Amino acid sequence: MRHFLVGLLALVFLTLAGGKAMAYDPENTLFMDLKDGRVVIEMRPDLAPKTVARIKELVRQHFYDGVVFHRVIAGFMAQTGDPTGTGRGGSGKKLPAEFNGEHHLRGTVSMARAADPDSADSQFFICFAPAEFLDGQYTVWGHVTEGMEFVDKIKKGDPQSGAVNNPDKIIRMQVAADVKQ
User: Might you give the EC number(s) for this enzyme (predicted)?
Assistant: First the structure.
């Protein structure tokens, strides 16, 4: 009977997306709407419970809605989460490092930080390509499961090079469990 209930519960979380079936946990799935389409991010509380809890808290406060991608480097990553758009801002609450054994691969979502390992706040980045040199030094907390093609279309630019003119932004970010169907 227990196996039947587990299977039934899995079916409850089954959704059709882009013509393919994908099972997900709505409480640990983010929908990030960009100008070109929706990006689905699977959050990993098993890897970084404090980080995932804080990201969900900020998402539910609409903190990320309208925030720009202030640093986007082709072949490397797209960084966002600073409400000032300068790369120096955040939510004002530092997070302890939750470094883990996950690799920085294409679609990995990880926290940005300063030199202090415990300086992550609200800024995060999505890898365009493998970046194993970051492994063990940044908190990996999720992975893009759908919509990476929309991440690829984010306008490239970096404030340090002065090449950010009208940067792309997060239109809206939501925890899947909060989305009215």
Answer: 5.2.1.8
The string over 69-82, giving b where at least 16 C-beta atoms fall within 10 Å of a residue's C-beta and e elsewhere, is bbbbeeebbbbbbb
pTM of the model: 0.86
111 residue type, one letter: M
Mean per-residue pLDDT for 136-145? Answer: 98
Whether 95 and 139 have beta carbons less than 8 Å apart is answered as yes
10 and 17 in contact (C-beta within 8 Å)?
no
